[in-house]
Amino acid sequence: MEVDRVGIVGIKDTLGRELREMRISVTDRCNFRCSYCMPLEQYEWIDRREILTFEEITRLAGLFLRSGVEEIRITGGEPLLRHGLDTLVSALAGLEGLRDLSLTTNASHLKNQAARLMRAGLRRINVSLDTIHPARFRALTKRDNLASVLEGLMTARLLGLAPIKINSVVQRGVNDDDILPLVDFARRNGFWLRFIEFMDVGNSNQWVSERMMSKREILEIIHARYPLEEAGRSDPSAPAVNYRYVDRGGDIGVIASVTEPFCIGCTRARLTADGRLVLCLFSDRSVDLKRLLRTGADDREILATIRSAWEARADRYSEERLEAMKAGEYEPGSRRKIEMISIGG
Ligand code: SAM
Ligand code: SF4
Ligand code: SF4
């Protein structure tokens, strides 16, 4: 444990990784049913009374900042389904010590909310979009909302949210032929683009390694049309490896969680919508911070709980998965994990 700024305690886990970033899920509900994330129509939804209030989230966020966190991303489920999200954005944006506040969304409700969110202090967003073809979009999300997603993206751009990053999960035989159309779309409109290797998150997405397109394969397809040069990671803990188009610069990257895991640089924790602290995307364990909040724990007690959880952290699931895959021993369903909709990617 090191005190590096006034009142800010930098804590390290068992592998020497500092707690630097939080992903805060504000709801487990979503209006889409992406096959790789939330394929079923019904889940055991979190009881509304168990969902953290904005005041509770803001209090915890302040305590995370005092534990060394500098970056917060709001996520879900679909965060824009949470009523009055701009009120939370405004509270978080006002927290001292927060260097970066962002939001990950499917953008279907962005058109009407972008201006309010910006006024509240949001500066940048990530939008998940895996195809720009309406029929494919319908097949992937089980919903017919491509037009509203595109309107959301264009509204955000017009208002000046920047950068706008598009995240696309690539599945072999499902949307690998969408890679170049997405590249063209992003280049044409000035969006950053991140392809994501299909991961075995949660327990219901039927992950098989054959369906995962590797970073190398994705880059080969793009490079053949638009030659790329590597630009590296924006910082050592960033999940994406970035590239520039040789012909005109621009920003494109790949998050290779499966074939080139980056656990050793993982400085990120997650807070579920019902107030559980989760230390790895693939974990099945959590620390119940809501119980502390609602039983009157003081700041000191909550800070100590966050610290001891992080200091005991040894998670390196993606590296272990790669080792097991190489040894031919990986069984995707062998381990129970928290669903992606609870922890927000
Ligand atoms: N609903 C919002 C959205 O889609 O942007 C936020 C939550 S969503 C769970 C966050 C991110 O997780 C999305 O970019 C999504 O593509 C990604 N994701 C979900 N399941 C995934 C999987 N199996 N493999 C890779 N990424 C996944
Ligand atoms: Fe919803 Fe996002 Fe999951 Fe798709 S990826 S089902 S939009 S939470
Ligand atoms: Fe971090 Fe866990 Fe992902 Fe590794 S598998 S990068 S430890 S969240």
Polypeptide structure, described:
This protein is of the alpha/beta class and 345 residues long. The chain has one domain: TIM Barrel. Helix content is 32%, strand content 20%. It is built from eleven helices and 14 strands. The strands form two sheets. A twelve-stranded mixed sheet has the order 9-10-11-8-7-6-5-4-3-12-13-14. Strands 1-2 form a two-stranded antiparallel sheet. The longest helix has 14 residues. The radius of gyration is 19 Å and the shape is globular. The two termini are 28 Å apart. The mean pLDDT is 93. One iron/sulfur cluster binds next to loops.
Strand content: 15-25%
Name the poorly predicted regions.
none
Bound molecules: S-adenosylmethionine, iron/sulfur cluster
Order of helices and strands: EEEHEHEHEHHEHEHEEEEEEHHHH
Main beta sheet strand tally, sense and closure: 12 strands, mixed
Lateral arrangement of strands in the main beta sheet: 9-10-11-8-7-6-5-4-3-12-13-14
Counting DSSP H or I runs of 4 or more residues, the number of helices is: 11
Helix percentage? 25-40%
User: How would you sum up the global shape?
Assistant: globular
For this structure, the quaternary state is: single chain
The CATH topology corresponds to TIM Barrel
Average pLDDT across residues? 93
Distance between the termini: 28 Å
